[in-house]
TrEMBL record:
Biological process annotations from GO: DNA damage response
Protein name: SIMPL domain-containing protein
Keywords, sorted A to Z: Signal
Signal peptide start-end: 1-30
Keyword Zinc among UniProt keywords: no
InterPro entries linked to this entry: 26kDa_periplasmic_antigen, SIMPL/DUF541
Gene3D superfamilies registered for this protein in UniProt: Protein of unknown function (DUF541), domain 1
UniProt lineage: Bacteria, Pseudomonadati, Bacteroidota, Bacteroidia, Marinilabiliales
């Protein structure tokens, strides 16, 4: 082997040795690097955020049923046509009206005389209690049945949820701060955050149509006019948070 080849071989061996040493050093560093969740002194707290929202999406469900007026049968098509005419006259957006079940058309009820009465369930969306009261009156005029508020929501719900989450984490940091100040310490960076969501579905406190009374506070109330009010949508969020205690050196608490 000539001197040049010997030099090349020595360089290759040296390069391999350096690479092995570097890999070993990185591996050792990774194994000994402390986890900040375990090595930093910390404080654990819970934070809360709460927000009440007036719903602007109210979903009213009701049923149209075929019936007899004397010997004359009022069929489902005529009832539906009459309903839509009333809604249009009162400037309601018919695009907000839909079948309660998108896959369903109508159901039938057999009578003893072998006649068949059909019915359809609908949902209409309104944006205020005043609109809801107006719809009550229309449903009363067309003799709709089983009218009730199915659910309520808000068009900007996701934005409100973000707002409450921010309130909760700020509350957690504020709590950690004043607790640490009591022992002459300062709150540092967040090490761990876990959110816990709670959604409170509101309900109609008083709903009345066609003289059918509802219960409120375990007492029967009867009224001639629709008296409808809603509890606000209540969003409550809790977060569990861990904050570092500032100014302390990193020490391995759980080796």
């Amino acid at each position: 082997m000539n001197p040049l080849e010997t030099i090349k071989l020595s360089i290759m061996k040296a390069s391999k040795l350096i690479l092995i040493l570097l890999l070993f050093s990185v591996s050792s560093f990774a194994q000994t690097e402390p986890n900040p969740l375990h090595s930093t002194p910390y404080i654990e707290v819970t934070g809360e955020g709460e927000l009440e929202i007036v719903p602007n999406e109210i979903f009213l469900q009701f049923t149209l049923k075929e019936r007899y007026d004397g010997k004359t049968k009022i069929n489902i098509e005529d009832l539906e046509k009459k309903m839509k005419q009333h809604l249009k006259v009162n400037k309601f957006d018919l695009s907000k009206l839909s079948l309660a079940d998108a896959d369903a058309n109508f159901v039938t009820i057999k009578r003893k005389n072998k006649d068949v009465l059909a019915s359809k369930d609908f949902i209409i969306e309104v944006s205020s209690t005043q609109e809801l009261a107006d719809v009550w009156e229309i449903l009363d005029e067309i003799d709709a049945a089983n009218a009730h508020v199915q659910r309520v929501d808000h068009s900007e719900m996701e934005d409100f949820k973000k707002e409450v989450k921010i309130k909760a984490i700020k509350n957690a940091k504020e709590k950690a701060s004043y607790l640490l100040e009591a022992v002459d310490e300062q709150v540092g960076r967040a090490l761990f955050i876990q959110e816990r969501e709670n959604y409170s579905q509101p309900f109609a406190e008083k709903m009345m149509i066609r003289g059918v009374a509802s219960f409120q506070n375990d007492e029967l109330e009867i009224a001639d006019e629709p008296a409808i009010s809603f509890k606000k949508i209540k969003l409550t969020y809790k977060v569990f948070a861990r904050f570092a205690i500032e100014g302390h050196p990193v020490e391995l608490l759980n080796p």
